[in-house]
């Protein structure tokens, strides 16, 4: 039926977006951890991280547009632009709007990095650790598919991989710790 | 003695001896300095006249003069001696620099470990007019080798952080408070003040080469200390003025920790003067002349210098933090005759990789010192790689003279 | 002509630049870049731009040669002019 197409598109694009965002976050962590093998150089990690983030925008656009124009949900554009303004599942949907704004901020500062400078870029980028949980909770709260096993499985894989990546991240010593550490100099008396 | 002396010269004596401050205009001052060929005395040896012209061109009356008396080089004592003995000459130089580049503000950046110099400049400023006092301030440079580096000095005045910054922009473009800044060594300023009074001919005609300058003789000499020389005086002359060698010496460190080792016998007749030395691949730098006692090991001495330079790194750039400390550690292992199999090869390779890969020239200086050591002490290094030392006859380590 | 310039203070030794442009950039024993001096050949300029873009900390720049990127200017504390 015609009016169920937007409904499926919204849910489908939403799930794909969540999976993509999970991959983006994991790849971001892999990138910071400087992981590589002989056949997987680091620029691949960085390249995928950036490209998948941009791809997510496409699916998010489909997700939002189909949700708004869907006659069944009667959301209207305001719900998509102003967080927590929709009467339908106000909180959970509002989180989705917040998530998109966070993602847009991250992507915008990344695309215009020379303009914003490395410090601002870095601060905004850390919002990714807020953006992803927001997206996940939005998905669980507004999703109408949580009872389906396949949806639970997808969510479990997403959560599991982010937790694994973050745990891995927290365990390792910062590769840039040498900047703070005082010099380890050979034990020699000062010569003068 | 123009530049040094046993007591701090008062304003009255200074005026009596030298007359009033030169009245030359900005353009005339710069022309005199350019004609004199005066080279900077902070270590880099950049032509002073050209530097003043460069800052003047960008100034539009907003420039700042920073008189650099940090003297972080441990073997150099000339700047502090100059400031302690002839503070008014230094102040005159700073005033003339300010006039030439169009600056109102003057900062005297004096090493915190040089209290006599600090007191002398402070006292001398108190003797001057209120107008001059209003334009000048003294900033204590933190201890450490890199705090006298040009961008580090500016960074400290701007933000309290005496670490070099990435250039561009260089201080002559944007320095203190974002304004074009003339960072000039205090000895250069003192000489500029003398040249301004007497004309460039005075500077060019003195000594066998041209000019006068200060150097610090130390190490295996009887009377180490600061000497004022006419350029063209030889290494032998310096030894004589220092009371002769204490024992024997085969190696001399010229130019400071950023300079290099040279063979004493070979360079006995070396005219100590920037241009002649440069043509022989040597460095005048900040005028350090340090003699290594004959019974001290060159490898060990080099290891100590490298360890010191490692400790003085600002730790902002990977190649300096990792490369320099790895070189220092390997050299130390060689010095104690317990090297790893590739240590000598490694320090040659790593040393070649240091140049031009830091934000400042700290790694470059260390690389230059290392190269001169590997050159002059080649036999010693080879012996040490085989766990032997030919210089030290006794098995225990001897302290460097 | 463009030259590759590294902001040595910002550089954290990620080494992505060397992955993309091994013709001009290699890594030392600790992962920090060693850059060939001089202008980038025309056929590599596009790759050089990508290398600049991929640096996670924006430490790499392409600068016009001769506009002071590495020139010895007044007051540099260097003996850079000797023994090069």
Can you offer a commentary on this structure?
The complex is a heterotrimer of chains A (192), B (401) and C (84). Chain A is mostly helical and 192 residues long. Helix content of chain A is 70%, strand content 0%. In chain A, helix 4 crosses helix 5 and helix 4 runs antiparallel to helix 6. By secondary structure, chain B is an alpha/beta fold. Chain B has three domains: 194 residues, NADH-ubiquinone oxidoreductase 51kDa subunit (Rossmann fold, 3-Layer(aba) Sandwich); 88 residues, Ubiquitin-like (UB roll) (Roll), CATH 3.10.20.600; 88 residues, NADH-ubiquinone oxidoreductase 51kDa subunit, iron-sulphur binding domain (de novo design (two linked rop proteins), Up-down Bundle). In chain B, the strands form two sheets. A five-stranded mixed beta sheet of chain B has the order 6-5-9-7-8, sandwiched between helices. A four-stranded parallel beta sheet of chain B has the order 3-2-1-4, sandwiched between helices. By secondary structure, chain C is α+β, with helices and mostly antiparallel strands. Chain C has a single domain, classed as Alpha-Beta Plaits (2-Layer Sandwich). In chain C, strand 2 and strand 3 form a beta hairpin. The longest helix of chain C is centred in the middle third of the chain and has 10 residues. The C terminus of chain C is likely disordered. The chains are: A mainly alpha (192), B alpha/beta (401), C alpha+beta (84). The interface between B and C is large, with 48 and 29 residues.
Order of helices and strands of chain A: HHHHHHH
Biggest sheet of chain A: strands, sense, closure?
Answer: none
Radius of gyration of chain C using CA atoms only? 13 Å
- Quick check: average pLDDT of chain C? 80
C-alpha end-to-end distance of chain C: 22 Å
* Helix percent band of chain A: 55-70%
Write down how many β-strands of chain C occur, each being a DSSP E stretch of 2 or more residues: 4
| Count of DSSP-assigned helices of chain C | 2
Helix content percent band of chain C: 10-25%
For this structure, the CATH topology of chain C is: Alpha-Beta Plaits
**CATH architecture annotation name of chain C:** 2-Layer Sandwich
When the domains of chain C are counted, the total is 1
* Uncertain runs of chain C: 68-84
Kindly name the structural category of chain C: alpha+beta
């Amino acid at each position: 039926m015609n009016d169920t197409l937007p409904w499926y598109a919204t849910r489908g694009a939403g799930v794909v977006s969540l999976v993509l965002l999970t991959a983006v976050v994991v790849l971001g962590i892999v990138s910071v951890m400087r992981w590589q093998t002989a056949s997987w150089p680091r620029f691949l990690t960085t390249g995928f991280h950036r490209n998948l983030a941009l791809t997510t925008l496409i699916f998010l656009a489909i997700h939002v547009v189909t949700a708004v124009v869907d006659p069944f949900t009667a959301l209207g554009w305001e719900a998509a632009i102003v967080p927590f303004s929709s009467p339908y599942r106000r909180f959970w949907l509002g989180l989705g709007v917040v998530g998109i704004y966070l993602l847009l901020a991250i992507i915008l500062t990344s695309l215009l990095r020379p303009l914003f400078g490395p410090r601002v870029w870095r601060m905004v980028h850390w919002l990714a650790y807020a953006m992803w949980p927001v997206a996940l909770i939005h998905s669980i709260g507004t999703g109408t598919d949580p009872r389906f096993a396949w949806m639970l499985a997808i969510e479990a894989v997403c959560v599991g991989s982010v937790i694994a990546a973050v745990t891995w991240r927290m365990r390792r010593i910062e590769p840039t710790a040498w900047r703070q550490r005082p010099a380890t100099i050979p034990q020699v008396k000062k010569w003068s | 003695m123009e530049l040094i002396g046993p007591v701090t010269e008062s304003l009255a004596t200074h005026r009596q001896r030298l007359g009033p401050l030169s009245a030359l205009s900005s353009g005339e001052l710069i022309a005199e300095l350019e004609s004199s060929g005066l080279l900077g005395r902070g270590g880099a040896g950049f032509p002073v006249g050209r530097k003043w012209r460069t800052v003047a061109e960008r100034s539009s009356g907003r420039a700042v003069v920073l008189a650099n008396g940090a003297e972080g080089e441990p073997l150099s004592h000339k700047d502090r001696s100059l400031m302690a003995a002839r503070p008014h000459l230094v102040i005159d130089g700073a005033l003339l620099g300010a006039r030439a580049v169009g600056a109102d503000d003057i900062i005297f950046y004096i090493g915190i470990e040089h209290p006599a110099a600090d007191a002398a400049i402070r006292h001398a400023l108190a003797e001057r007019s209120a107008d001059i006092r209003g334009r000048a301030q003294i900033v204590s440079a933190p201890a450490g080798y890199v705090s006298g580096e040009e961008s580090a000095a500016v960074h400290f005045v701007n933000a309290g952080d005496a670490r070099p910054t990435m250039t561009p922009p260089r201080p002559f473009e944007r320095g203190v408070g974002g304004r074009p800044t003339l960072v000039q060594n205090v000895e250069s300023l003192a000489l500029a003040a003398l040249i301004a009074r007497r004309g460039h001919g005075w500077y060019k005609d003195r000594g066998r080469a041209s000019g006068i300058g200060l150097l610090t003789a130390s190490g295996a000499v009887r009377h180490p200390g600061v000497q004022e020389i006419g350029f063209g005086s030889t290494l032998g002359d310096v030894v004589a003025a220092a009371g002769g060698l204490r024992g024997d010496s085969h190696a001399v460190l010229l130019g400071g920790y950023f300079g290099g080792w040279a063979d004493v016998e070979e360079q006995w007749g070396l005219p100590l003067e920037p241009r002649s030395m440069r043509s022989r691949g040597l460095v005048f730098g900040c005028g350090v002349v340090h003699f290594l006692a004959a019974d001290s090991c060159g490898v060990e001495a080099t290891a100590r210098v490298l360890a010191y330079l490692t400790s003085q790194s600002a730790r902002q750039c990977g190649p300096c933090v990792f490369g320099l400390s790895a070189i220092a550690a390997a050299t130390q292992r060689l010095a104690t005759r317990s090297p790893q199999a590739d240590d000598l090869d490694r320090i040659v390779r790593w040393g070649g990789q240091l140049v031009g890969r830091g934000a400042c020239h700290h790694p470059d200086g260390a690389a230059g010192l290392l190269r001169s050591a590997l050159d002059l002490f080649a036999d010693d290094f080879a012996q040490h790689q085989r766990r032997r030392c030919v210089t030290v006859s006794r098995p225990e380590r001897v302290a460097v003279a | 002509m463009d030259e590759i310039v590294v902001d040595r203070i910002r550089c954290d030794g990620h080494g992505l630049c060397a992955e993309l442009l091994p013709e001009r950039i290699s890594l030392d024993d600790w992962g920090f870049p060693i850059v060939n001096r001089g202008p980038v050949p025309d056929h590599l300029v596009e790759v050089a731009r990508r290398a600049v873009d991929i640096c996670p900390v924006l430490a790499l720049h392409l600068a016009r040669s001769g506009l002071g990127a590495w020139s010895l200017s007044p007051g540099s504390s260097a003996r850079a002019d000797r023994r090069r």
